[in-house]
UniProtKB/TrEMBL annotation, chain A:
Belongs to the SKP1 family. It is found in: Nucleus. It holds the Pfam family Skp1_POZ. One of its GO terms (molecular function) is protein-macromolecule adaptor activity. It comes from Caenorhabditis elegans. The keyword Nucleus applies. GO terms for biological process: ubiquitin-dependent protein catabolic process. The gene is elc-2. Residues 1-43 are annotated as: Disordered. This is Elongin-C. Residues 48-110 form the SKP1 component POZ domain. One of its GO terms (cellular component) is elongin complex.
From TrEMBL, chain B:
This is Protein zer-1 homolog. InterPro entries: ARM-like (IPR011989), ARM-type_fold (IPR016024), LRR_dom_sf (IPR032675), Zyg-11_UBL_adapter (IPR051341). One of its GO terms (cellular component) is Cul2-RING ubiquitin ligase complex.
Length: 141, 710
């Protein structure tokens, strides 16, 4: 259980939301601008992957960086059709953006210094330590 | 090594709790987080776990797994743990806790422990072990390595834990495995470093039909390493055995062949340090150090298991393999070797390791790491293939190792040679660590053990060679150095009979001892005088002699009055007399006579009449010649310390007064300012009117006075 009392849903691969239906004309005038497509996210061997927080912040990181997390490694090592079709995007229902951002920092840090005998300390602000520990348990990193 | 985010976050939380800044009292830690944070708290405060327990009051923790290795537990901790449903407990060494068994039993009443580690030096009674078995019916993994058990106790022990899957009784002293057949569910069994006299002692082993992993390894220092022979003598087979560890046992090819035939179902067989060559091809994965590649494979395996003894053996063997590759100019993966060495040093901190002395082939304790020895070999032959980061790390590692202790181990010298090589190749060398090594070597020159003394000399000799000389000359000695480092360097340079480096080091000593009473005393205490005088005979070099004599002068000048005759003895005086006959240099002669004068000035006139007479005669004899020649020796210190002034006022020795007058002449001729300062001084009248009645002194006085009227 997490601190909100709800079941820890963790993360899940994004499903393809494009069902092919065309939106009504009345909604087009007020529609949000379409996101700019980012290259490198397509296919089962994409160069990048996308992690999305529960407040819709997107973090695009290198696949090799994401692989430092055991959970993500298992997910991306055996990609499903849905995962590839969704531009290798993973949604985290329990992680706020500032937590997910710190996780990404750590993954990059670990990638950089994993083979170094001496690595600079990875500082964790006290106010997010609890949430970060929960995230670390979930991502196994 | 990079810590996991889990560890890092838990450490941050632990620090908050430890400092009393954790504000989320209502937060309920889940099981995994609780275990992790508690582990980090133990790392922060390992001295007394009770302090941690106090800090945890009010927090919602769910502990299921705790490790008290290297932690001092308190009785209160057991009270805390009874509130949790423990599943895994590593006790560590808790011999200081009275009634330990009582607290443990109370804890077990509320636990569902399936993993229990009691390894270490603790002692447990047979009755308690029996009770524990009854209290922990779910126990599957038990480690009592190092816990002393008698054979009858072991029999009872096996009755108490019938459901074990994994058991480690390494180093527990059991010599007969009677009773082990009761552990019918056993899959993993470790019997490291246990000794069996015959196959009969271990025959029950083969009743364990489900045994999957068996460790019969021995430490190579044991004289009896024949457990594998006992195993084979049983003429039976463990049908489910897949992993067999034989390392350290003496084996021959016949034994290995028999084992491979009878246990062809093995997946892995380890025969590191078994004195047997692995077959070139086998369906069974064989861990050995027969080749370079197999040594790397074995090293990785044991490194992962954190098996220190086997890791050290692998590094020993790897070093030999690499040495052979170097001799044959063959290539190998240097980066991998360095990386594995660094990982080993990180995972397995260096500790005391029993090993054979390569000089006298006897047992002794070595504090040198085999990883460092291995790295030294790589540096000396494959430096160009090392990265800049690695060279810096390696240099630090080598310095730390050599700095520990000079003992009968040539590896220290090899490491030192690697350090010098790194420095010559431009790698930064920490001066403080270098200084520590040099100080240690300087002290070891008088160790009394000729092997250690020779090793220390060789290391110091390498310090005064080439570019290293500049490095060592830049070292600043401190008052805390018991043995003067530069004295060791000078001794080494003299031993090497290198005039240039000897003079460079001597010049440093000269500067260090100049007008420094404390430093002079240190050098005197450590036998500098005898060494310096003997050094004069080694070189026919005026510059060298001037420096040496300058140091001797400093030592004599600063020595206590009541000990000067012990520092500069009559024997040494006679040596100087002989040298003085052959020297034509005025500077050298003046310095030597200055030493005589200082000696005279320090001495009570009622003692050593013969010395006083001889020295006085020498001073009188040489005065006319020195007065007529130019002398470039610095004489300021004689005035700064009032020596000249005191002699003019009080001395009754003609020779001594003549020396003082000569010194005044030398000083005055240096500069106009010096001349004026003498003329204006309050002792100038003593020059004009010597207090002793002597024709020679009067004539000398007149000659000196002439300088000031010119």
């Amino acid at each position: 259980m997490d601190k909100n009392g709800s079941a820890a849903g963790g993360f899940q691969a994004a499903s393809n939301k494009d069902d092919g239906l065309e939106e009504p004309d009345s909604q087009k005038t007020g529609a949000k601008p379409q996101p700019v497509p980012i290259s490198g996210l397509e296919g089962p061997r994409s160069k990048y992957v996308k992690l999305v927080s529960n407040d819709d912040h997107e973090f695009i990181i290198k696949r090799e960086v994401a692989m430092t997390s055991k959970s993500l490694r298992e997910l991306f090592a055996n990609p499903t059709v849905d995962l590839a079709a969704a531009n290798n995007t993973v949604y985290f229902s329990d992680f706020q953006s500032h937590i997910l951002q710190k996780v990404c920092h750590y993954l990059a840090y670990k990638t950089k210094y994993r083979h170094s005998r001496v690595a600079p300390p990875f500082d964790i602000p006290p106010d997010i330590a609890m949430d970060l520990l929960a995230a670390a348990n979930e991502l196994e990193c | 090594m990079v810590e996991s985010l889990k560890h890092t976050a838990a450490a941050a939380i632990a620090k908050l709790i430890h400092n009393g800044h954790f504000n989320s009292k209502s937060y309920a830690f889940d099981q995994e987080s609780s275990n992790e944070v508690y582990a980090q708290l133990l790392r922060l405060d390992p001295q007394w776990s009770y302090n941690i327990d106090l800090k945890l009051k009010g927090l919602s923790f769910i502990l299921t797994k705790v490790n008290f290795e290297n932690v001092e537990m308190g009785p209160q901790t057991f009270g805390l743990l009874t509130q949790h449903n423990l599943k895994s407990l590593v006790l560590g060494n808790q011999d200081e806790i009275p009634s330990l068994e009582h607290y443990m039993s109370r804890l077990f009443r509320t636990s569902q422990i399936d993993h229990l580690d009691l390894s270490g030096r603790s002692q447990f009674s047979t009755a308690w072990l029996k009770t524990t078995g009854q209290q922990l019916p779910l126990l599957r993994t038990l480690n009592v390595s190092g816990v002393k058990l008698l054979n009858p106790d072991f029999f009872q022990f096996c009755k108490s834990f019938p459901n074990l899957y994994s058991l480690d009784i390494s180093n527990c002293g059991v010599t007969i495995l009677t009773g082990i057949s009761r552990l019918k569910n056993l899959r993993h069994l470790s019997l490291r470093s246990l000794i069996y006299e015959s196959w009969y002692d271990i025959r029950e082993l083969f009743a364990l039909k489900l045994l999957n992993v068996l460790d019969l390894s021995m430490h190579s220092t044991h004289h009896a390493r024949r457990n594998m022979q006992r195993f084979l003598d049983c003429k039976q087979v463990l049908p489910e055995l897949r992993f067999l560890e034989c390392s350290g046992n003496l084996m021959d090819e016949d034994m290995l062949e028999e084992l491979l035939i009878t246990h062809s179902h093995l997946h892995q067989l380890a025969i590191v340090d078994c004195d047997v060559k692995a077959p070139k091809s086998s369906p069974i994965r064989i861990l050995s150090c027969t080749t370079f590649d197999s040594s790397i494979t074995a090293l990785k395996y044991y490194l992962n298991l954190k098996r220190r003894n086997e890791v050290q053996i692998c590094f020993q063997e790897l070093r030999l393999h690499v040495k052979r590759l170097h001799e044959r100019k063959m290539q190998y993966d240097v980066t991998e070797c360095v990386t594995l060495s660094l990982q080993s040093l990180e995972k397995l901190p260096c500790s005391l390791i029993m090993n054979f002395d390569i000089v006298e082939e006897r047992l002794f304790t070595s504090r040198l790491s085999f990883e460092a020895d291995f790295l030294a070999e790589i540096v000396l032959h494959n430096f160009h293939r090392l990265s800049r980061v690695h060279t810096r790390l390696i240099c630090d590692i080598l310095l730390n190792n050599v700095n520990r202790q000079l003992i009968r181990d040539l590896r220290a010298e090899t490491m030192w040679n690697a350090i010098i090589y790194l420095f010559n190749m431009g790698v930064f060398v920490d001066k403080q660590k270098l200084k520590g090594i040099a100080s240690h070597c300087a002290a070891s020159l008088h160790n009394g053990d000729p092997i250690i003394e020779e090793q220390a000399m060789r290391i110091l000799t390498s310090c005064v060679t080439g570019k290293t000389l500049e490095l060592v000359l830049s070292i600043t000695e401190s008052k805390h150095d018991t043995t003067p480092i530069c004295l060791g360097f000078l001794r080494a340079a003299l031993h090497k009979e290198d005039e240039q480096s000897s003079r460079r080091v001597a010049e440093k000593i000269l500067a260090a001892t100049h007008n420094n009473e404390e430093e002079c005393k240190r050098y005197i205490k450590h036998g500098a005088m005898n060494m310096l005088i003997s050094a004069i005979d080694r070189f026919d070099s005026e510059p060298m002699h001037i420096v040496i004599l300058g140091i001797i002068r400093n030592l004599v000048m600063m020595s206590p009055y009541d000990k000067v005759q012990q520092i500069f003895t009559c024997v040494q005086f006679r040596t100087f007399q002989i040298l003085l006959r052959n020297w034509t240099s005025s500077d050298r002669a003046y310095l030597m006579l200055s030493i005589f004068a200082l000696r005279l000035n320090h001495q009570d006139k009622n003692f050593e009449c013969v010395f006083r007479k001889c020295a006085d005669e020498l001073l009188r004899k040489h005065f006319p010649y020195l007065l007529a020649t130019e002398i470039t020796v610095d004489v300021d210190i004689y005035f700064d310390r009032g020596i000249v002034q005191n002699i003019l006022r009080t001395s009754e020795e003609v020779g001594l007064v003549l020396w003082a007058l000569l010194t005044i002449k030398i000083y005055a001729q240096k500069s106009l300012w010096n001349s004026r300062s003498i003329r204006d001084s309050n002792f100038f009248y003593l020059i004009e009117n010597p207090h002793i009645a002597s024709e020679v002194v009067n004539v000398a006085s007149e000659n000196v006075r002439f300088l000031f009227h010119w």
